[in-house]
Amino acid sequence: MGSCSRREFHALALAGAGWALFGCNQGAAPDGTVSPAMGQVTLPFATFPKLGAAGGSVVVAVAGEFPIVVVRISDTEATALSATCTHAACLVGYAPAANDLHCPCHDANFALDGSVKSGPTIIPLPVYRAMVGADSIVVDLT
């Protein structure tokens, strides 16, 4: 059995994802772990150099919470979403060629706004506010 936070498990269970017990955190391994402080996580470019330029992305485990995927869209814009597929709870990753998020377990695809581009899921990914700073990206998890 995989592991996921209680909040994420309940969200998946309520969404009809009965596979939550078996699928949590399957798929690609996260690029690192960050700890939240006051509902936010900071991803320094020194620790996550892929986020230093447009087109870069990382999947990070948020300690005590759930994994997120962060994509640097431009010099001033980034997006952050839950990295847990809403179908079978596998980890999604950024697919630069398609400019979307892809779940390798059952080929679900999500737009960077969280909407479903192709199933089997019909449930969008939760989106979080991401702010690009001079040396990091801060994600608001609330």
Q: Overview of this structure, please?
A:
The chain is built from two helices and 13 strands, in the order H-H-E-E-E-E-E-E-E-E-E-E-E-E-E. By secondary structure, it is mainly beta. The strands form three sheets. Strands 2-4-5-6-12-13-3 form a seven-stranded mixed beta sheet, with no helix packed on it. A four-stranded antiparallel beta sheet has the order 8-9-10-11, with no helix packed on it. A two-stranded parallel ribbon has the order 1-7. The longest helix is centred in the first third of the chain and has 9 residues, at 6-14.
Structural descriptors:
single chain, 142 residues, mainly beta, 7-stranded mixed beta sheet, 2 helices, 36% strand
Provide a compact summary of the structure.
The chain is mainly β and 142 residues long. It has 2 helices and 13 strands; from the N terminus they run ααβββββββββββββ.
Overall shape: it is globular
Order of helices and strands: HHEEEEEEEEEEEEE
The largest pleated sheet is described as: 7 strands, mixed
* Separation of the first and last Cα atoms: 28 Å
Catalogue the unreliable spans.
Answer: 9-25
Strand order, sheet with most strands: 2-4-5-6-12-13-3
Please state the oligomeric state of the protein chains shown: single chain
SS-based class: mainly beta
Taking all Cα atoms into account, the compactness measure Rg is: 14 Å
Q: What percentage of the residues does DSSP assign to strands (E)?
A: 35-45%
Mean pLDDT: 85
